[in-house]
Design goal:
Number of helices: 1
Strand order of the largest sheet: 1-8-3-6
Radius of gyration: 26 Å
Distance between the termini: 62 Å
Largest sheet: 4 strands, antiparallel
Helix content: under 10%
Number of strands: 8
Shape: globular
Oligomer: single chain
Strand content: 25-35%
Order of helices and strands: HEEEEEEEE
Length: 132
């Protein structure tokens, strides 16, 4: 009897699909959805207007969850990203620096891109952004 039971269990296990889909009724659901659609993409660029130790520019007011940044191809210096107290190389609170054509991806902003500030070593240098 024991041998037949083991054989039955092995056969049953091997005949199961690799995964099973369980359908739950849609009515009377109270829980929040597990996945939400990503926000629309927003892209643009910021040109460094001033390059003093305390000069910084705030990202635009964009609803976003994360942003990717790329330094302009013709930039002469570094671009820095960080919070509201960020400085460039002259200051004492350098953010993450991006060299010419360098990229920093998936910076989480949790709601709005304007939480990120940009500084640069040279007036006229550009940083491009893509946020969702």
């Amino acid at each position: 009897m024991k041998k037949k039971l083991i054989t039955f269990l092995i056969f049953t296990f091997l005949s199961l699909p690799a995964f099973a889909v369980i359908n739950y009724p849609l009515e009377n659901r109270t829980a929040a959805p597990i996945f939400e659609w990503a926000l629309d993409l927003n892209n643009g660029s910021i040109t460094i207007a001033a390059a003093g130790a305390l000069d910084r520019q705030q990202m635009p007011d964009l609803q976003a969850t994360s942003c990717t940044f790329q330094s302009g191809i013709n930039n002469q210096g570094n671009i820095y990203i960080g919070g509201s107290t960020i400085t460039n190389a002259i200051g004492t609170n350098e953010g993450l620096h991006i060299v010419s054509t360098g990229t920093i991806s998936n910076v989480t902003v949790n709601g709005n891109a304007n939480k990120i500030w940009i500084a640069g070593d040279n007036i006229g240098d550009v940083i491009k952004y893509l946020c969702n």
